[in-house]
Amino acid sequence: MSDVIKKVPPKPRGIRQTMSDLHIWTGLLVGWVLYAVFLTGTASFFREEISQYMRPELAVQHQAGDVPALVQRTVDRIREQQPALTQVSIQLPTERKPTITASWRDPQAGGRGFKSVTLDPISGQEVSARATRGGDFFYAFHFNFHYMSGLWARWIIGFCAMFMLVAIISGVITHKKIFTDFFTFRRRKGQRSWLDAHAALSVFGLPFHFMITWSGLVTLMVLYMPWGLQSLPTPADKAAVTSEMRFMQPAAPKPAGVPATLVALAPLVEQAEQRWGKSTVGSVQVSNINDANARVSMVQSQT
After folding, report:
1. DSSP character at residue 257
2. Between vectors from CA 31 to CA 30 and to CA 36, what angle results, nearest 5°?
3. Please, where are the H alpha helices in 175-234?
4. What is the mean pLDDT of the chain?
5. How many whole angstroms separate alpha carbon 171 and alpha carbon 177?
6. 44 and 137 both lie in a single domain
7. Is residue 152 domain-shared with residue 33, that is, in the same domain?
8. What is the count of structural domains for the chain?
9. Most CB atoms within 10 A, among 114, 197, 217, 246?
10. Could you report how far apart the first and last alpha carbons of the chain are, in Å?
């Protein structure tokens, strides 16, 4: 008489087991990419200090006195050197960055057609420093990578960020006692101790990780999901939405083609300081110089 061994069919996988596999693989596949993004993004908060450290020639702290006169003198100096100047942007000195950075559109310049110089805020003379991107390298890397197209880099980072959201949500579903496990730590239990530490650290940073990933996707949502903007009926509607979504200021108007003398900039900066406070203007941008549609834009300093 032979015994018949009946095989018990395996239980169907539940939602938590499925979410566990999804959580593991999405975390592994994109974790290293996002680690580089988060690391360089964190360093970006100190990009001014890093740039200052890597350019010791600019280490002397200068106090800019009369900011309106400083802006006027800087623009006049650049216009003397560039008679065909149509656009210029000036970054004024702050406690973290002691120099002036002036950039303007130059069709003969490489890249995006912009040229920039670093100026001393007291003398207005150009300051020579070693060629380095300093902290700006980390800032650009955390959303553009390096040695590759910025567009492809943003697509790769966006793809990884979307998977990170999947990993976060699936991780919460997998741990049905996630908030209870947050207060549980079993010492000297091998892998169990590591899992307890993983759960505790994950819950502690969960709000930050979710918001930093979600906000990064929202920042470039038009790139990842352009169909809403494309569905608008008229070009004017698209231009209005695009203008509202700009981080700093709306786009400059098109040149009118009518010659006009540029107004004095010092009184405009004085008006801005009366509203915002002394030495609070962070940057000044002048567009369509010597044109009837010239525009002067100012942005308040963040420091």
Report:
1. S
2. 105
3. 178-181, 191-219, 221-224, 227-230
4. 83
5. 11
6. yes
7. yes
8. 2
9. 217
10. 89
Is the pTM here over 0.90, yes or no? no
Range of the domain at 18: 12-55+130-225
pLDDT tens readout for residues 208-232: 889 999 999 988 888 898 888 888 8
Do 100 and 121 meet the contact criterion of CB atoms below 8 Å apart? yes
Residue ending a domain, choose from 170, 201, 225: 225
pLDDT for position 205: 83
Is residue 51 within 8 Å of 59, Cβ to Cβ?
no
Task: Tell me the mean pLDDT in the region 243-266.
Answer: 79
Residue 202 tokens read as: 């994950």
Last residue of a domain, one of 225, 249, 273: 225
Q: What is the dihedral of CA 188, 193, 197, 202, to 10 degrees?
A: 180
In a domain, 195, yes or no: yes
Question: Is residue 4 scored above 60 in pLDDT?
Answer: no
Question: Are 106 and 155 in a shared domain?
Answer: no
pLDDT at 16 over 80: no
> Each residue of 131-150: pLDDT tens digit?
888 899 999 999 999 888 98
DSSP output for 108-160: TSSTTTEEEEEE-TTT-PBPP-----THHHHHHHHHH-SSS-HHHHHHHHHHH
d(CA 286, CA 72): 11
